[in-house]
């Protein structure tokens, strides 16, 4: 094995009572791509933040290139040749690419000279690593894939030899992710060391040389990627066997429950986001909408669930129209049997400052079951919440706990439990497993399929192609506000990826 | 000719009245661009005005007065920084507290030190900043049109007036042409980006607040040592808030800030000039209405005539490293 670029020895870190990292030992070989996988909250990001000087370890030692290193600030890390691409980009949105690259590494007190110097250096880096970006473009006008390149360029400009990427593909299209992987391989060929943090096992298998698995703050295993499997890694991550693809029988589609016809929706800026879309969902089937985020899926969901005004078109629920003027009463839609699990559970689905039991009836608080005269029937609400907690395995099992204190996966289960337990005829789910761990994904998928088998119509919108393929009976692909194709669940990833990138669509238009 | 003279005189007082607004507005620009809301501009101007007049009258030196105004004003800015940067307190609460402390302490100290009901002694020549007469101002005063413009509008102001207007291009240059400016703008937009780039967010924001303190100190000194011959209680009279309104109106840009402050200064000058004199068609307008005019206009302008003003994205939010 080559010389170690980084060695972590006995790293401990606690936040209050939470032990985020316990006695972590890790060795990363120079010139390799090393993956670190684990569920949310397993301590991956904390460990990397310690390495980047964002936090200090409570105890333990870091060695960089064999030398003990004291990394107290990001500056120390940068000086040691460690660069980091954060999950949420650390870019100033209204600055240019060049300004972002030089920020903190300006060679001169006057910008003109710093920028002139940076420009030629940046051009060299772009050529060398295939990282083309217009240096004078404004960040917020760039697609996320290019923003990420700017982050990589920032690290390289500072002379990074070791590049840490935290969940780099979460925001990318499959094509962009492939491009990123090519860049990473090129970096590796040039002798750089890459540390890839992710919870997507497919990516680990595709690109890494070595992979370490974290669970609940500890490092449970390190494997050579060639000698492991996705199943083994998933089991190591969760601590038990996991079904990565939920078993399901044939769909038994019945009558049309929801009919969308010629729907057109504009966003707040007046841009057409949903462009003349028509489709039906029948009882007993799951229809999946695939697409790269921002191609109109959000607006489609909002229009159907009555929280966004549509410009034209109609949506029929059980043969009766839904008010699309923006004046629709979501409460009335619930009464008619349309349940909605919003994409953004933090802003739309939950009141994080409320107790769990309060959130578990949100929107259904007018239901006589939860009322005693004009007042809320607290006992009924709490008992109801306890039932849902038991049924959906929500942890911790405490209906009085503040919702913000639940993990993302459990928050999602709270929303799902609330909407599913109302026994709706139509269930609309946006990003059912965004930010949810492998174990909980399995559970949520099983639940959705159970709904289908009970004869409900389910609409799933997700940017995770795996999820769409594993759940859907029919797959609709959205691109630029239109449905550019319908495929069966057997459609290959490559085929769907091309549709999502609008390739076929553009060819047809020419 | 009467009309022309009236216009020149109104414009002249526009300049005089907009100077404290402009200095305060630029002061606010430094802190808000760095992501610190500063509703305490008013209070810092007030302590600056008091410290300036008090020191000038005790030490018989205008420049010592100015220095003391800046010193005390910066000290108050540092209190705001300590509360809102170091201790991540609410910036509005901290700013309001500073305004209250300023209003109360200037009166108490003024009464304790000078026994003139909260005033400082009237400043003597040499203790104030005198008007600077530009060469030839007297000679060409009688030349039609150009004469009054040169001798009244351009010449005949105190050094602080010229300083205030020079601060406009200077601030622009600092913000958009220097490393410090780049970092300052960055920290107001995305402090996490600055932090991960290895720059101290706290120190950067403190430095921005020092700039704020210096400028509010000069603004205060202008009020008590140029516009007035001494400190009078509550003499800032809401100028700090108007400056904040002008800052939003100017969309946090220095040159826009100058025009916004000139507009507010002009309305102020106009309201003074038109007091008691009947307007054509409308007739006599109550004094109170004229005095309220700048504020009414502020509300109207801010309510929708300026388009969308996008504040620095991280404004008002204390920086906490995320887990």
Automatic annotation (TrEMBL), chain A:
CC per GO annotation? plasma membrane
**PROSITE patterns xrefs:** ABC_TRANSPORTER_1 (PS00211), ABC_TRANSPORTER_2 (PS50893)
Q: Which UniProt keywords apply?
A: ATP-binding, Cell membrane, Membrane, Nucleotide-binding, Repeat, Sugar transport, Translocase, Transport
Q: Name one GO molecular function term.
A: ATP binding
Tell me the lineage of the source organism: Bacteria, Pseudomonadati, Pseudomonadota, Alphaproteobacteria, Hyphomicrobiales
Record domain ABC transporter: where: 6-241, 258-505
Q: What is its main location?
A: membrane
Q: Give its localization.
A: Cell membrane
By what name is this protein known? Heme ABC transporter ATP-binding protein
Which Pfam family is an annotated match for this chain, by its short name? ABC_tran
User: May I ask which residue range the UniProt record assigns to the signal sequence?
Assistant: none
Annotated family: Belongs to the ABC transporter superfamily.
Q: How does it sit in the membrane?
A: Peripheral membrane protein
TrEMBL record, chain B:
> Which keywords label this protein?
Cell membrane, Membrane, Transmembrane, Transmembrane helix
Give a GO cellular-component term: plasma membrane
Subcellular locations according to the entry: Cell membrane
Q: What is its main location?
A: membrane
- Entry-linked InterPro entries: ABC_transp_permease
Q: List the transmembrane segments.
A: 14-31, 43-60, 92-114, 159-176, 206-225, 288-306
Pfam families cross-referenced by the UniProt entry: BPD_transp_2
GO function term, MF aspect, one: transmembrane transporter activity
Q: State what protein this is by name.
A: Sugar ABC transporter permease
Topology in membrane: Multi-pass membrane protein
The organism of origin for this protein: Mesorhizobium kowhaii
Instruction: Tell me the organism's taxonomic lineage.
Output: Bacteria, Pseudomonadati, Pseudomonadota, Alphaproteobacteria, Hyphomicrobiales
């Amino acid at each position: 094995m080559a010389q170690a670029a980084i060695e972590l020895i006995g790293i401990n870190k606690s936040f209050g009572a939470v032990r985020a990292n316990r006695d972590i030992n890790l060795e990363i070989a120079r010139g390799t791509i090393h993956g670190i996988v684990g569920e949310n909250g397993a301590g991956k990001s904390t460990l990397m933040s310690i390495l980047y000087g964002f936090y200090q370890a409570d105890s333990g030692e870091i060695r960089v290139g064999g030398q003990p290193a004291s990394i107290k600030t990001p500056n120390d890390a940068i000086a040691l040749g460690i660069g980091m691409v954060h999950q949420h980009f650390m870019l100033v949105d209204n600055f240019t690419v060049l300004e972002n690259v030089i920020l903190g590494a300006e060679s001169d007190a006057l910008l003109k000279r710093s920028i002139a110097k940076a420009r030629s250096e940046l051009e060299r880096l772009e050529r060398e690593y295939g990282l083309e970006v217009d240096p004078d473009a404004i960040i917020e006008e760039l697609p996320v894939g290019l923003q990420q390149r700017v982050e990589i360029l920032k690290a390289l400009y500072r002379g990074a030899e070791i590049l840490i990427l935290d969940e780099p593909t979460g925001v990318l299209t499959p094509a962009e992710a492939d491009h990123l992987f090519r860049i990473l391989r090129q970096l590796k060929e040039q002798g750089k060391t890459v540390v890839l943090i992710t919870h997507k096992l497919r990516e680990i298998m595709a690109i890494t040389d070595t992979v370490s698995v974290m669970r609940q703050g500890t490092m449970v295993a390190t494997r050579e990627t060639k000698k492991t499997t996705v199943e083994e890694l998933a089991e190591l991550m969760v601590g038990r066997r996991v079904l990565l693809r939920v078993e399901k029988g044939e769909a038994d589609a019945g009558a049309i429950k929801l009919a969308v016809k010629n729907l057109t929706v504009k966003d707040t800026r007046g841009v057409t986001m949903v462009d003349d879309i028509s489709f039906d969902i029948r009882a007993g089937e799951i229809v999946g909408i695939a697409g790269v985020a921002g191609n109109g899926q959000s607006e489609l969901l909002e229009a159907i669930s009555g929280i966004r005004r549509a410009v034209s078109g109609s949506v029929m629920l059980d043969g009766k129209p839904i008010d699309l003027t923006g004046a629709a009463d979501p409460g009335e839609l619930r009464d008619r049997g349309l349940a909605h699990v919003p994409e953004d559970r933090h802003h739309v689905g939950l009141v994080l400052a409320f107790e769990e039991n309060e959130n578990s009836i949100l929107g259904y608080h007018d239901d006589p079951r939860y009322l005693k005269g004009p007042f809320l029937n607290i006992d009924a609400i709490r008992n109801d919440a306890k039932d849902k907690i038991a049924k959906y395995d929500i942890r911790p099992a405490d209906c009085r706990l503040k919702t913000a204190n639940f993990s993302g996966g459990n928050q999602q289960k709270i929303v799902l439990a609330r909407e599913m337990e109302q026994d709706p005829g139509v269930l609309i789910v946006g990003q059912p497993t965004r930010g949810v761990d492998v174990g909980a994904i399995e559970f949520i998928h099983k639940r959705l399929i159970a709904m289908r088998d009970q004869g409900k119509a389910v609409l799933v919108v997700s940017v995770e192609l795996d999820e769409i393929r594993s759940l859907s009976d029919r797959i609709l692909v959205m691109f630029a506000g239109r449905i550019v194709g319908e495929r069966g669940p057997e459609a290959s990833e490559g085929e769907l990826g091309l549709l999502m990138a609008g390739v076929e669509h553009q060819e047809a238009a020419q | 000719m009467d009309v022309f003279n009236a216009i020149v005189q109104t414009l002249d007082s526009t300049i005089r009245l907009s100077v404290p607004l402009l200095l305060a507005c630029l002061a606010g620009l430094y802190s808000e661009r760095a992501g610190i809301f500063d509703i305490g501009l008013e209070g810092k101007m007030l302590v600056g005005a008091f410290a300036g007049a008090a020191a000038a009258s005790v030490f018989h030196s205008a420049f010592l007065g100015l220095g003391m105004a800046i010193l005390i004003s910066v000290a108050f800015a540092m209190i705001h920084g300590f509360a809102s940067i170091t201790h991540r307190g609410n910036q509005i609460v901290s700013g309001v507290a500073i305004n209250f402390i300023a209003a109360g302490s200037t009166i108490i100290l003024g009464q304790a030190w000078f026994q003139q009901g909260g005033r400082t002694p009237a400043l003597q020549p040499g203790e104030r900043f005198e008007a600077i007469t530009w060469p030839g101002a007297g000679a060409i005063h009688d030349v039609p049109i150009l004469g009054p413009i040169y001798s009244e509008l351009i010449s005949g102001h105190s050094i602080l007036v010229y300083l205030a207007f020079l601060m406009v291009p200077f601030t622009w240059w600092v913000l958009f042409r220097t490393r410090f400016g780049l970092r300052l703008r960055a920290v107001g937009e995305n402090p996490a980006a600055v932090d991960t780039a290895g720059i101290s967010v706290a120190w950067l924001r403190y430095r921005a607040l020092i700039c704020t303190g210096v400028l509010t100190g000069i603004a205060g000194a202008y009020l008590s040592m140029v516009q007035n011959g001494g400190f009078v209680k509550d003499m800032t009279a809401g100028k700090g808030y108007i400056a904040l309104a002008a800052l939003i109106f100017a969309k946090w840009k220095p040159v826009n800030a100058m025009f916004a402050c000139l507009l507010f200064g002009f309305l102020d000058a106009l309201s003074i000039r038109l007091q008691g004199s009947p307007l054509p068609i409308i007739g006599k307008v109550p004094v109170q209405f004229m005095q309220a005019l700048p504020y009414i206009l502020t509300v109207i302008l801010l309510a929708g005539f300026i388009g969308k003003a996008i504040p620095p994205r991280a404004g008002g939010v204390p920086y906490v490293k995320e887990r």
